[in-house]
User: Fold this.
Amino acid sequence: MTKTEPRSDGQTISRAVSILQALAERPGASFGQLAKMTGLPRSTVQRLIGVMNKEGLVTKAFGQQGAYLGMELARLGARVQIDARALLRPFMEQLQTKIGDNIDLTTLDDGRVFVVEQIASNETIRVISYVGKQHPVHCTANGKAHLSMLDRDAARALIGPAPEACTPRTLTDPAAILDAVDRARGLGLFADSDEYQEGASALAVPLPRIGGRDFALSIAMPTPRFTRMRDEIGAALLAVRDGVVAEYGRSI
Assistant:
């Protein structure tokens, strides 16, 4: 009698998920193809497909060996409601322990940038924001971060032909704005240096998509303090972005 290696529940779930992911990439794959894609024994693939088929997570093609994702997955997925604020608030709180200034979480909604979560500054002299505040897309750090997540044509349409000059430092040429966004995209940090409000500056980072929506996180403060702390602010924002990606992946 041969001894079989005991399987943990976690291992079984991990193997089942790998099969579902493979089917998402190659609908109708055979057991042999799934075994090759996942690195699992064919017998394991066949057994797990059988179990998931009974639960509606996988559908086997009648008269064929191929398998497809089942409708139960669609039904469950339709009931998922992701609260981005709840997911990201702990990261924002950790960020404020490092940088005590105003933190805004923004999303792009119907072509407009809105603050959906906010932590106020601890400083006496500070930049003030609030949930529901709308940010111009062309001259704020958040807005530029959102532009970076769009293709150039969509971003240009969002900027419009004649964006407002909020301060003497505001860029109003759409092509120049997009060129500046392109230059910043490599580092992943987007700045507003007295462009939206004189005496106030900010730095923002794009975050992974959550529930099909784009999000960005920014820190804003008076320009003199921003100038002194810019490297520290940038490192803190990039660390938060990397933490979110490590926790949830590049989209949720």
About this structure: The chain has nine helices and eight strands. The mean pLDDT is 89. The chain has two domains: 9-78, 84-248.
